[in-house]
């Protein structure tokens, strides 16, 4: 019968241990031994102490930096094109958004710039209406011309955006910042039809220059530019001078024309062979083809759905 000899554990043979299932498990011979971990920990501690208390490691650190610094820089340079891709896409999106915003701002500025001239002109016309209201002693209802063309038997009319709700009634004087426009023919609640002074059937009494001589101003029926008007003088012995100003002499209770509204200036004087009378050709102050903002003369205190320019020049 063979006798078993006890097996000695040597340094080369790792001790066996029992695993969870009750079997013997031999440790991996490649696994580091506990003594190795202890040695590494001690070495790290020594290096930390030397680094904090002694300059012994400074040369080594410098050498390592000189060796690995260029390598790290080169690696960073090589990797930058790849790592910067997300940032590039993000930057492109932000740039596109900024371009869209700037284009919208430019479009808005161009639109504002395009309307600057119109707004400035409208402001000037309102300021001139204020001066007219002070001169004639009537309040003025501001209105805008919204249509031009013939109306029933009259050829030269315009439509304004102010009607009975604004205090406008038939046979009221219509003016602009330059002078007389015409008179109101008829109204609706929100609009009014205005007979222009240029109409061939329009007649208004006028006074000439400093002489205050009176006559009758007739329209020519022409709407092209500053179509001339015709002044028939009552006193045939009076010869107006070129450049004399003609203004309205006024009607009873200011209807249809209030007094003192500028009509135009005398351009020339001639004799009518048919009836042997003297007449003057008048260049009107108002160019009917450029009408925009006008005013209807109303008594002060008139109820209106809009602000009025009062006779004292105040907006009420």
Largest sheet: 6 strands, antiparallel, barrel
Strand order of the largest sheet: 3-4-7-6-5-14
Calculate Rg over CA atoms. Answer: 51 Å
- Percent helix, as a range, is 25-40%
What distance lies between the first and last C-alpha atoms, to the nearest angstrom? 137 Å
Count up the helices: 3
Q: What general outline do the C-alpha atoms trace? A: rod-shaped
- Give the rounded overall mean pLDDT: 77
Identify low-pLDDT runs. Answer: 1-14
Order of SSEs:
EEHHHEEEEEEEEEEEE
Strand content: 25-35%
How many beta strands in the DSSP annotation? 14
SS content category: alpha+beta
Task: Describe the 3D structure.
The chain is α+β, with helices and mostly antiparallel strands and 316 residues long. It contains 3 helices and 14 strands. Strand 6 (180-187) and strand 7 (192-196) form a beta hairpin. The radius of gyration is 51 Å and the shape is rod-shaped. The relative contact order is 0.13.
Task: Describe how the helices and strands are arranged.
Elements: E1 17-18, E2 24-25, H1 34-53, H2 58-83, H3 85-136, E3 139-151, E4 154-160, E5 173-175, E6 180-187, E7 192-196, E8 203-208, E9 213-218, E10 229-233, E11 245-248, E12 262-272, E13 277-284, E14 293-298
């Amino acid at each position: 019968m063979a006798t078993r000899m006890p097996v000695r554990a040597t340094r080369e043979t790792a001790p066996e241990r029992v695993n969870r299932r009750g079997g013997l498990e031999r440790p991996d011979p490649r696994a580091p031994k506990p003594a190795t971990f202890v040695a590494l920990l001690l070495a790290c501690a020594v290096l930390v102490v030397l680094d904090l208390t002694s300059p012994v490691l400074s040369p080594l650190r410098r050498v390592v930096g000189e060796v690995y610094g260029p390598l790290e820089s080169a690696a960073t340079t090589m990797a930058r094109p790849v790592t910067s891709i997300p940032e590039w896409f993000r930057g492109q999106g932000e740039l596109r958004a900024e371009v869209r915003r700037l284009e919208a701002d430019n479009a808005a500025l161009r639109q504002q710039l395009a309307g600057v001239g119109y707004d400035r002109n409208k402001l000037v016309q309102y300021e001139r209406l204020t001066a007219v209201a002070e001169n004639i002693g009537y309040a003025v209802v501001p209105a805008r011309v919204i249509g031009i063309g013939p109306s029933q038997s009259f050829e030269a009319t315009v439509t304004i955006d102010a009607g009975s709700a604004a205090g406008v009634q038939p046979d009221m004087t219509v003016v602009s910042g330059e002078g007389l426009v015409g008179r109101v023919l008829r109204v609706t609640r929100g609009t009014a039809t205005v007979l222009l002074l240029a109409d061939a059937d329009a007649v208004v009494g006028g006074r000439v220059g400093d002489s205050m001589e009176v006559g009758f101003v007739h329209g020519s029926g022409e709407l092209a530019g500053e179509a001339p008007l015709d002044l028939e003088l009552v006193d045939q012995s009076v010869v107006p001078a070129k450049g004399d100003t003609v203004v309205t002499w006024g009607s009873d209770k200011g209807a249809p024309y209030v007094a003192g509204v500028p009509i135009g200036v005398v351009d020339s004087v001639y004799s009518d062979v048919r009836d042997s009378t003297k007449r003057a050709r008048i260049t009107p102050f108002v160019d009917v083809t450029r009408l925009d903002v006008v005013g209807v003369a109303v008594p002060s205190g008139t109820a209106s759905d809009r602000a009025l320019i009062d006779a004292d020049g105040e907006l009420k």
